[in-house]
Design goal:
Elements: E1 5-14, E2 17-27, E3 32-36, H1 43-50, E4 58-63, E5 66-67, H2 73-76, E6 79-82, H3 94-104, H4 109-122, H5 138-150, E7 156-160, H6 168-183, E8 187-191, H7 195-201, E9 204-209, E10 212-219, E11 234-236, H8 239-247
Parallel strand pairs: 3-8, 3-9, 6-7, 7-8, 10-11
Antiparallel strand pairs: 1-2, 1-4, 4-5, 9-10
Helix pairs in contact: 3-4
Length: 258
């Protein structure tokens, strides 16, 4: 089975800062691949490049056999992207945002309306659908962003911290939804600081540190024999312990007055 996502030597610099340094991995159809690492490791940059939102300084990425670059119209509606770092229009209602996303991705008005209803129910936003985004809490905005990434049923789903701000019910439904998408052959790449959810959901995990892919892991409980990434992955029972081995255990800072 050919990989649906191939990343080869991706490098991204911002002036003297190197956000990514020769990032390489591949992901097979039907797999859920996790990116973990400290803040500033390059996770959001990696996903934004794959979504075609920013241009890599060097290297290449191929999704579904097509080169990834900003403005590649052949890929836009085959990819779903979410990141809390990208804002929405406050002067639209939740329903209007979702309908607009659906129509932009080529859905008919009837299908866009039906999927909007389904996604608002999935993320428990039915009662807020008619409210303007300026009235939304951060968690509600987060849910709406996820719905925008899902409305066109993309073949490739790129999620940057999808679980932050979600209540337990929404997390449970989202995890079930992502597993269902993977079971249908769709490919999901997500970043998260929630080690338990990553371990529960992902087939493979890459550990990023200072823009470098330090290690890749096959998770025992979520193994997918079709997946194959480089460098050589291993099976580990404890994801958090491996993370600290790679990036270093955080120093415990004692504050006497607390």
């Amino acid at each position: 089975m050919n990989p649906s996502v191939i990343v080869l030597d991706l490098t991204k610099t911002y002036g003297p800062t190197r956000a990514l340094n020769k990032l390489s991995f591949s992901v097979e159809p039907g797999s859920i691949y996790g990116l973990i690492g400290p803040n500033g490791a390059g996770k959001t940059t990696s996903l934004a490049i794959l979504a075609g939102l920013i241009q890599a300084t060097s290297g290449e990425a191929v999704i579904l056999g097509l080169p990834v670059r900003p403005g590649n119209c052949r890929l836009v509606s085959r990819i779903g992207f979410f990141s809390p770092q990208f804002p929405y229009f406050d002067y639209l209602t939740g329903v209007e945002v979702l309908l607009t996303c659906g129509l932009m991705h080529g859905l008919t008005p009837k299908k866009a309306k039906g999927r909007t209803h389904d996604l608002l129910a999935l993320l428990d936003l039915q009662s807020a659908g008619g409210q303007y985004l300026s009235q939304y809490s951060q968690g509600m905005r987060h849910k709406l962003g996820l719905a925008c990434a899902l409305i066109h049923a993309p073949e490739i789903l790129l999620l940057d911290e999808p679980f932050v701000g979600l209540d337990p019910s929404a997390i449970f439904r989202l995890v079930s939804c992502l597993r269902g998408m993977a079971a249908k052959g769709r490919t999901i790449i997500l970043s998260s600081h929630d080690m338990a959810l990553v371990e529960r959901l992902c087939n493979r995990v890459g550990i990023l540190h200072e823009g470098v892919l330090k290690h890749q892991i096959t998770l025992a409980d979520n193994s997918n024999p079709g997946a194959s990434e480089q460098p050589g992955p291993e099976t580990h029972p404890g994801l958090e312990s491996v993370l600290w081995e790679i990036v270093g255990m955080p120093k415990i800072q004692e504050i006497p007055w607390l």
